Amino acid sequence: MPSSSHPPLLLRLLHGLNGILLVLAWLTGLLVYSRFDGRWGRLPFPISGEWMEIHGSIGVVLLPVALLFALYAVTAGRWRLRQAANAVPLLALLLAVGSGKLMQEDWLEDGQFDHLVYHLHLLAWLLIAAAVIWHVVALLRRGGPALLRSMVGLGEAPLQDR
């Protein structure tokens, strides 16, 4: 276990970039779902624009970042994955990215909502929402606002043992 009171800089950078991209992907996914599918509800306003292309572009950027983050997590951050609140969001992210890469763009435009991969992608979307909430609550319970601030700070971390 690292001796600093703050998470390592590489973790904070990868985590932060993943977080930003994940939120953007989740929100644009909501817009895409509401515009094309909406079987279980739609947003209360009309959706227009190229949200599917934006969502896919975010996914293309998220893929290598998520893979780097997963690689870091299973190597240098392996001990953090013992906590389910850290492991489940990572698994949900990998399911979302993997299923998203397997989807065909024209499925939704053509009203083809019964593909297994699409259902996996929707499941990942729901899992990510629940897992991120769980992750943040666990983080706040474990370290409070100080740990949250340490995750967003980019400066070098002071050592606890000094």
Secondary structure topology:
Layout: H1 9-37, H2 51-74, H3 84-102, H4 106-109, H5 116-152
Helix pairs in contact: 1-2, 1-5, 2-3, 3-5
What does this structure look like?
This protein is mostly helical and 162 residues long. The chain has one domain: Fumarate Reductase Cytochrome B subunit. Helix 1 runs antiparallel to helix 2, helix 1 packs antiparallel against helix 5 and helix 3 crosses helix 5.
Low-confidence stretches: 157-162
Quickly name the level 1 CATH class.
Answer: Mainly Alpha
Q: Total helix count? A: 5
Average pLDDT over all residues: 88
Radius of gyration: 18 Å
What would you call the shape? elongated
Number of strands: 0
Distance between the termini: 17 Å
Percentage of β-strand residues: under 5%
**Under CATH, the topology is which?**
Fumarate Reductase Cytochrome B subunit
Helix content: 55-70%
Task: Please give the domain count.
Answer: 1
The major β-sheet equals: none
- Which structural class matches the secondary elements? mainly alpha
N to C succession of SSEs: HHHHH
Tell me what the CATH architecture is.
Up-down Bundle
